[in-house]
Design brief:
Strand content: 25-35%
Oligomer: single chain
Largest sheet: 8 strands, mixed
Radius of gyration: 21 Å
Order of helices and strands: HEHHHEEEEHHHEEEEHEEEEH
Structural class: alpha+beta
């Protein structure tokens, strides 16, 4: 129920603020805590302990903003993101960007809609529909400029995560919505983990960090190009590609695509795209 979700999220915020206060130290660049502390926080606050403590973590990562009382204690110019830090251990770490939001005002690139009607009719969720549209309209090929092939949906695996002390590591179960492999014009091979978000959930830098780990630990001989995708309000589709430097992840590229009936793609549209492509080729030569 929508009302219950609002109540739950308010309770989750109270819990996470309690946990953060208990573990934060001035000048700290990491605030770690165990899953058990989430239950301890609920009991101390006199509120019902959530049946699924993991949902507290999921909510803070993907559904709500980091509470201001926590965010204000991040290093200057940074915000906090909630990372896995071992078995049933989590850590707030400073990042330049936490929630990944599409830029406003970016031009929509028109692409003739190629999704089979039966697929559009029977897609069961926004996320499923989004992944289908990306696949059937070859949006990854268009976005990356190479041939991309779906390797596996809902790719579940485990990754090794260093402990908060930087030494002891443990495995953590992760899932990538879809994994593609790609090949460019030079014959080089790539791994493209794709994260998709539908509904009100938001993309988080933590998912991308996990996908970089999946790529390096499970496909170490391939070049990694993590991707994220999301529906915009008008049902256009945004695609992001990411880069990683040190401990920070940034958006390397972002494009917005509008899927339209082929007859709505005008000669003027095609001419504009031809001129833009010609200019881009001259610029890169």
């Amino acid at each position: 129920m929508p009302g219950n979700r609002g109540i739950s999220q308010n309770r989750y915020i109270d819990i996470i603020k309690w946990v953060f206060r208990q573990n934060f130290q001035d000048g700290s660049n990491e605030v770690s805590f165990s899953r058990a502390q989430l239950g301890e926080a609920a009991r101390d606050l006199g509120i019902q302990v959530p049946k699924n403590l993991g949902d507290v973590v999921y909510s803070i990562r993907y559904r709500t903003d980091i509470p201001a009382e926590i965010d204000n204690l991040a290093p200057t110019g940074m915000t906090w993101a909630l990372f896995p830090a071992g078995r049933s251990v989590y850590a707030f770490r400073p990042v330049a960007v936490n929630q990944i939001e599409p830029r406003s005002g970016l031009a929509r690139i028109k692409v003739p809609e190629s999704t089979p009607g039966l697929i559009s009719r029977y897609s069961m969720s926004d996320e499923q529909a989004l992944l289908a549209k990306v696949r059937y309209n070859r949006l990854l090929d268009i976005f990356t400029g190479m041939a991309c092939y779906s390797l596996q949906n809902h790719f579940r695996t485990s990754i090794e995560i260093p402990g908060s002390d930087g030494a002891n590591s443990s495995s953590s179960q992760v899932e990538t919505d879809e994994v593609y492999v790609g090949i460019d014009r030079h014959g080089s091979h790539y791994i493209l983990p794709v994260q998709a978000k539908g509904g009100t959930d938001r993309l988080s830098v933590v998912q991308i960090w996990q996908d970089f780990r999946v790529a390096e630990q499970k496909f170490g001989n391939l070049t990694s190009r993590p991707i994220a995708t999301q529906f915009l309000d008008d049902r256009s589709i945004v695609l992001f590609e990411f880069s990683e430097s040190g401990n920070q992840i940034s958006i390397a590229r972002e494009r917005h695509y509008s899927l339209i009936p082929p007859e709505q793609l005008s000669d003027q549209d095609l001419e504009e795209y031809r001129v833009a492509a010609s200019g881009a080729r001259r610029f890169t030569q």
